[in-house]
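Example 3.2
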Amino acid sequence: MSEVAPKQWWNEDRGRGGEASAVVDPEERIDLLLRDLRSTRSGLSSREVERRLLQVGENVLVRRGGRRWPRELLRQLFHPLALLLWLASALSFAVGNEVIAIAVLLVIVLNAAFALVQELQAERAVEALARYMPQHARVIRDGATKVIEASGLVPGDVVQLAEGDRVAADMRLLSGAVEVDLSTLTGESVPVLRSAELEDANVPRLAARDLVFNGTSATGGEALAVVFATGMHTELGRIAALSERVKEEPSPLELQVRRVAWLIAAIAITMAVAFVPVAILGAGLSLQNSVVFSVGLLAGNVPEGLLPVITLALAVAVSLLARRGALVKRLSAVETLGSTNVICTDKTGTLTENRMSPVSAWTLAGARDLADDGSVRPGETEEPVFAALAEAAAACNDARLQRNGVAAGDPTELALLRAARALGGDIDAAHRERRRRHQYNFDPELKLMSTLDADADGTWIHTKGAPESVLPRCARVLSSGGHELPLEPETRGLITSHVEGYARDGLRVLALARRSLSTGSEAPPREEIERGLCFLGLVTMLDPPRAEVAEAVARCHDAGIRIIVITGDHPLTAAAIARQVGIGGKDLTVVNASRFDHRHEREIERLLESRELVFARASPEAKLQIAETLRGHGYVIAMTGDGVNDAPALRRADIGVAMGRSGTDVAREAATMVLTDDNFATIVTAVEAGRQVYDNVRKFIVYIFSHTTPEVLPFVVFALAGGAVPLPPLALGRDPAEPGIMERPPRRRSEGVIRAPMLVRAWLFLGLLVALLSLAGFFYVLLGAGWSAGDPVGAGSRFHHAYLQATTMTFLGMIAGQIGTAFAVRTQRASLRSVGAFSNRYLLLAIAAELLVAAIVVYAPRFQALLGTASLPAEDLLWLLPFPFIVWGADELRRCLLRRRDVPGAPTRAAIAGAPRQAH
């Protein structure tokens, strides 16, 4: 039914001009469609919905394209690092050493399988986030309006659409009109009008002006629509599922690691090729043995766990952030978060609780304090002007307050409705809807909303908005006795002074006005009705700062992160809240952004180069311009937003942050990260997680590179076969953050994940130390058996068993050195005690597993025969016990010396808040 009926309706009505095309009346066309869909204007029943869900399935886009894991497995098998191992295995087969060839192949398969599992788990983790933030739709079922998950829509459902909604299925408008962004389907970013009263014959479906489609966004207006196609039967489903159309780009971190992989491959091949003539001419080895040694060099140079650990670290961070209220939609975004050095934040709901409560009402009759329970304080009498103010506050409003305490709507409108109730106004939603003839939606540019209302007393325009927007449109003012008087300059000044006084106290201020129209008049254009108004009064409300924001702001300053507040609120109100949470310091700069456009780019650049500041009365276009200017100066920015018009700025920012509670579907779609708690402190937590991930990846790189030296050096010195391939402790990807991670300045955007000091530490300090210890163990065993230079160690010689024990000692020495290195690299400069030696249980489990594998390799007879190991006596094992402590202790001493040498250079909070800073 979801497919046949609407397709027949479309083709007969418009495609072929059939019988239905003779019907001209739009209402009759709608009745025909409802008949075909077996629905009514009052929607479906819950039982009918259940039946249709069984018949047509959920309203979801099904991934097409077959299984993805074979392609992912092939990608892992033929990665640059894996190609080195393929080459090593092929060379081993070529010289007849099948054991080494098979061992190398096993390493390839195991590494690819592990990497594949991590990739698929990470992908599923990101997809699972959609369940935390499902798209919703308002439908009429069983005669009542309900909010449901969009996946439960079925053909025949009647849906209410409003500004900011994401259209969740293909629909035909029944009444009203909406502006729709069709860029998802057409690529055209300019919104187009779709209205129930506009109909086209013989046009493509996407061009029909009475249809809206799945995946598009309502950017303005309100409408009622009936669903005629869901899921894969929609236009979006026919074109392709969104997940199949968008190809994920590799993150900068992944690109850097791939470049490093090619560099390692070039070094490894050069060393392996150069080693063959050295081994033949210098050590007198045969060609076969020389190739075997070169295979060992190739294997020893391959950091086979490098890519899996990056995926694991990012996936762990995404899961951790999801539990803390930040839903990151791309793994690579975690890395970007770590380099954020500017946060552009909203005020309402992000710095504040978004819990508006009315504080007072002011008119020419004076001020009225409003009690918390929504009533006028005892002893205060009402004046006619307050009755008019209450009527306007209740009429120009879309929120609902029910007697059972249930509230629905925007927090500001709910507070305004409570103020109207406190002043004795009628806040019944049914009464309001009966009076309303037309609504002029809130315009973020005008900062106004108006309604056209009519009853037995006449027809009125009621307007609310920012005082500086409402007051210039007023020509009269309502006196305390209820009479309209000319609005004189002195009265304007009095009103303005009260607005500024309330704003300095951190209160949000709304102005209300009205105008009488002739009875029965049609809804005139907006520019005609929002002028010549009669000023009624002011309503103030309080939205207190979140308790945890001040500490989060201080952490940002410690971390070298600037905070810029971009809000639509009054400059004085925004400044008061900013100062309360510690933004900007004493010399906070507050800018009225209402006048900004493309002509003020230089001025914006000058302001942004200076300090933390507040942009008040900022439009979405100004927010986009600020984002572009900051990025143009090299800053890495996180930008918050919740409205439809915030989407361009969210896409332009390095990290777009949408509000999960108060944000629109459009904003959440455009953002990189969604805050389920709308809390500024969660952004700071996410930045810390990004830094932690980057640090953990660097720890692993130092760890794995530090074992290139001890694995290669024995080949060079002794031309020995059977070099051990390190077992990477991927648990380092789960290491806690190093102390002081949020007291360092943000890293530069261009800074690579691998730096020269890291390689020096890995190759020439930790690696060389482990190599020397391993060689010391080798000579300890061999010399202890009575061997001297020149004595044969081959099969059949009396020192052959001692030689096998010595090579086994070298193998175990490397493992012991790895354990010490794993603890050493857990911090870059801080002491291990600061993070806790045993705080990473995953690392402890990995070490235990590594020791178990080593014991099996050394003492199991089958592995002894396969890998050429030999059992070691207890006294030889005691020789290995100090190795981890020597490696860790030496690096601990090195870090201690670095800490003593370092001069604190991190910027102070005051410097971040008030002093000029340069972009990274």
